[in-house]
Amino acid sequence: MREVDCLIIGAGPTGLTLGIGLLRLGRTVLIVEKHTAGLGFSKAILVSSDSLQALTDYGVAKKIQLAGIPLDGLSFFVDEQLTSCAQFDTVKPNHPFILPQEATEKCLKDSYLDLGGDICLGMSFSSEANVLDSVGSSHEALFIQLHQKDSPDSVTTVKCNYLFGCDGMHSSVRKSLNIAYPGRAVPEQVNFIFDVEVECWPFDTLLTMWFASTDSGIMMKISADPLVVRIVGTTEASAQRLLQKLRVKKVVWESTYFSNYRLAESYGRGNVWLAGDACHVHSPLGGRGMNTGIADAIALTHAVQTGDFAAYEATRRPAAQSWVNFNYILSVVSMSQARIFHVVRFIVSLIMRLLAWIMGPNFAVVAFQKMTTSVVQRKIETEQEKVLRRDRRSE
């Protein structure tokens, strides 16, 4: 039997950030991960300014900044025309960085191991073997059974003072606590995603957003060497249109996903707590999933230090609720089949709020206001021109 102060299930960004924080408190930590190797693809690609600021004291922010690319701006296209371009100040400290999740995890993992942390790969936690719904506020030691992936009959028992579930949307720790995860799956919100290696990047900013009358999409440069671009389309046709704008050398990864919007009824109790996708999930649009999990981990570390887990749930759950609600609206609007003219003003207001979330309070407000004003004006002028052409044809 192994004994450890803190047992973390899940070695993603949330679990690794939590592990680093707990080690810095002088706790002994074991992270358990059911996968034996990385997934080979990256769901998240943006490290926000808030995350970088929080990770500065952990010694991770510099690693991310050295490995990533600063987000330099956003170009906005409507009906295939560049309507405006907002440039961001990349010199400011803790500016958001583009870095695939796999590379972010490496930065976190290296720091965790440097601090003496322990990781067991290929070992899983099951809710069937660990029924924790009777856990109360007594904080008695827990005896957790773990199973080796390649030998399911082999059981390792770990005695721990705290158990943390950072094991994703299908969290076994959440299930073992019998905590409901209400919300909805939205299968009609299908996104088509491609990571492609290209010969060159032909745009002025690393992030481009494309809106047409029937669909929308984004393109973002996510790696410089090799030069890799992520494309996300709300329809297969929009993804293919964006692909045709690039000189593609090869497809690195492709997938489709439909969106889930869920929030756990509780974030835990006693000495068993959840963080990250284990307690909230939403569409990837906006790049806040991984960053929200990192914020959870920072707050949960503080809760261990103070013993005030009620404050952890009282602050982090409303923050997640706010983002899940906003993210749903953003996703619905971006996938709207209505004419873009009728929703462009709403899109503008949503993107302003989205950038405030990503960039922090000091992002280039004036530049973006100019950009969005020109977007609306250009669209109005385009619609007026269409009306004039129809009038001429009818004469």
TrEMBL record:
Pfam families per record: FAD_binding_3
Keyword Flavoprotein: yes
A molecular-function term among this protein's GO annotations: oxidoreductase activity, acting on paired donors, with incorporation or reduction of molecular oxygen, NAD(P)H as one donor, and incorporation of one atom of oxygen
Superkingdom as given in the UniProt entry: Eukaryota
Transmembrane helix is among the record's keywords: yes
Cofactor section: FAD
Transmembrane segments: 346-368
Domain FAD-binding span(s) in chain numbering: 3-303
UniProt keywords, alphabetically: FAD, Flavoprotein, Membrane, Transmembrane, Transmembrane helix
Listed InterPro entries: FAD-bd (IPR002938), FAD/NAD-bd_sf (IPR036188), RIFMO-like (IPR050641)
Protein name: FAD-binding domain-containing protein
UniProt organism field: Spumella elongata
